[in-house]
Amino acid sequence: MKYEGVTSVGIVGSGMIGGSLAVLTTSHGYKTVVYARNESRIPSYKASYDEYFRQMIDQGIVTREQADICEEYLKYKTDYASLRDCEVIFECVTEDIDLKHDIYSRIEKNCPNVKAICSVSSSFIPDKLAEKATIYKDRIIVAHPFNPVHMVPYFELCGGESTGEGVLQFVKEFLEALDRKPVILKKPAPGFIGNRLQFALWREALNIMESGIADPRDIDTCLMYSFCPRYTSIGIFEHFDNGGLNLNISTCNTVFPTLSNIDSAPPAITDRIARGDLGQKTGVGFYDWRSVDMEAYHKRVNDPYWHFINWELPKTGPENSGE
Fold first, then answer.
1. What's the average model confidence in pLDDT over 76-84?
2. Domains of the chain with bracketed CATH
């Protein structure tokens, strides 16, 4: 069911996140305007959007006819005035604070109907984002997703000192209408929730490798075939509550003192970067990628998420939807 109070969505920045967001919003029947700084870039943006739908068609999730109807809700524009009717605008550009501030300034000048400006930033806190805003300071929040946005339901929402009352709840309810699973943080923190957990695990995985306990392949095997699969169905607090907190306190007291507490990237990463071993993009990182079947790899990446796409797609284009 569509969320009352939102009829049009704006997206500034159409990289991986912006294109995926456009799939999500148009698939739920929201008129969507993607702002492109340069008209010459629009064909590549459109190609990304079409590719996401091709993948869903290949999975049997949508039909070609349904994809075509969804695309009727999408427009690409090169001027901010085209965003004037948008109630929600997602800012999806690179982590350049000056660029973000410039975008918010242009939104303030051109978009009288916007109720929330949602940055997908993974590093800037809301007050930093809003510090130079003059009109919409109270409407700028963080709405951080994980890629690809149309497949991964989770969003973490974060406001700041200047965030207006009700803005976070408004965005939360809108995202729920998009079949997302948003949470509202009680206060800002670097990395928010998801990346703090992910990088805590990454830091300890690197520590296990550097300490000579196990190699990367065996560490990955542990993750894939031991406790990680259960956390797609239950949460970590659920798990330890169910087991009995008194039963794991001894393990906490034994293991916690031995865990990594380094506060910067370790040599396992910096040494590889120094010699140009950057991972898949250069052929070698922790693994040798040169003979890896990347199509099969991407299938493994996406397979756990397809079942989340169970949306009620629009049956007609916007011209016939009654809007």
1. 96
2. 8-191 (3.40.50.720), 194-306 (1.10.1040.10)
